[in-house]
Amino acid sequence: MDWTALPSLAALRAFDALARTGSLSAAGRMLNVTHAAIAQHLRSLEAHFGAPLATRDGQAMRLTDAGRELAEALGEGFDRIGEGVARIMDRTADRPVVVTLTPSFAETWLMSRIGAFWAAYPEIEVRLAPSNALADLRRDGIDIAIRFGDGTWPGCDVEPLDVSRFVVVAAPGYSSAAGLDALLAERGHTWFFSAATNEQRVWGGAIGVDFDRETVREMPSNALALGAVRAGLGLAVQSHTLVEADLDAGTLVALHEEHDARGLGYHIVTRPGVLSPGAKAFRAWLRAAARQARTPQV
């Protein structure tokens, strides 16, 4: 198709509205423009085709043979466009919002809060895809990813959700050590980690834990690592975000809290481009939930 041979789309829309309504004023109201704008588009089309397309008949406009031929083609074309747009909009509105995130974040942060989203947006279905693997958002049809790291994911739109400080946690009564140095001076501790992540080891090393000399047990998931620590079997280095509920409930205690997160934290990651309305709503809710979690309760 030679697009340069076509008149402007605005002029074609104006003529289609004129053909549907039968008057310049009604066409203007249909498109929310003045009747003079419709008349100008009509003149530009007649100049383009070199033939009259409509003539005045009292207050109405009567189409010529050429005008009727153009109107028929435009009517069919715009109707098909409208039907196609409506089908896509319907599918987009009905499609679940697919969110990928780590199982530990889903279990310890999201699930205690998502009920508020469901209550506010009962019409939006959110499909959670917990995984420790780094998903390809486009290939896997992911709308939103919640990822842990320094925010460097090329080709994606990234915004911080929570820059997380980290803590050394244990079951209540596990150790009477006063401070990190005293804790590290004690021998015989077992440190529990999730095999799928490495930030816990990075953080532990940053505060001086020599894991080559310590007893370390790797669990298949962070949930299992935290379960072992709650049972009094040892220690763990955790993002404060993931254990705040345990700390508030008293099922875990913080033996050391580090406020320098080394630039690491949780981020909202999306593909460049337009998000579905449901995905936009869920992203906005995530932002609000994270802000509320950071706000001290009085």
Features:
rod-shaped; D-Maltodextrin-Binding Protein, domain 2; 3 domains; 44% helix; 298 residues
Q: What would your notes on this structure say?
A:
The protein is α/β, with parallel strands linked by helices. It folds into three domains: 3-94, Arc Repressor Mutant, subunit A; 97-163 and 264-294, D-Maltodextrin-Binding Protein, domain 2 (3-Layer(aba) Sandwich), CATH 3.40.190.10; 166-258, Periplasmic binding protein-like II (D-Maltodextrin-Binding Protein, domain 2, 3-Layer(aba) Sandwich). Helices cover 44% and strands 21% of the residues. It is built from eleven helices and twelve strands. The chain has helices at 9-21, 24-31, 35-49, 65-94, 103-110, 114-120, 180-185, 199-206, 222-230, 240-249, 277-294; strands at residues 54-57, 60-63, 97-101, 126-130, 144-149, 157-163, 166-170, 190-194, 215-219, 236-239, 253-258, 265-270. Strands 4-3-5-12-6 form a five-stranded mixed sheet. Strands 10-7-11 form a three-stranded antiparallel sheet. Strands 1-2 form a two-stranded antiparallel sheet. Strand 1 and strand 2 form a beta hairpin. Helix 1 packs across helix 3. It is rod-shaped and about 100 Å long.
Arithmetic mean of pLDDT: 87
Q: State the separation between the terminal residues, measured CA to CA.
A: 66 Å
Which structural class should the secondary elements be placed in?
Answer: alpha/beta
The major β-sheet equals: 5 strands, mixed
CATH architecture of the largest domain: 3-Layer(aba) Sandwich
The domain count comes to 3
Instruction: Tell me the β content.
Output: 15-25%
CATH topology name of the largest domain? D-Maltodextrin-Binding Protein, domain 2
Q: What is the overall silhouette?
A: rod-shaped
Which residues form runs of ≥5 with pLDDT under 50? none
- Helix amount: 40-55%
Number of helices: 11
**Total strands:** 12
Q: What is the C-level CATH assignment of the largest domain?
A: Alpha Beta
Report the C-alpha radius of gyration, rounded. Answer: 31 Å
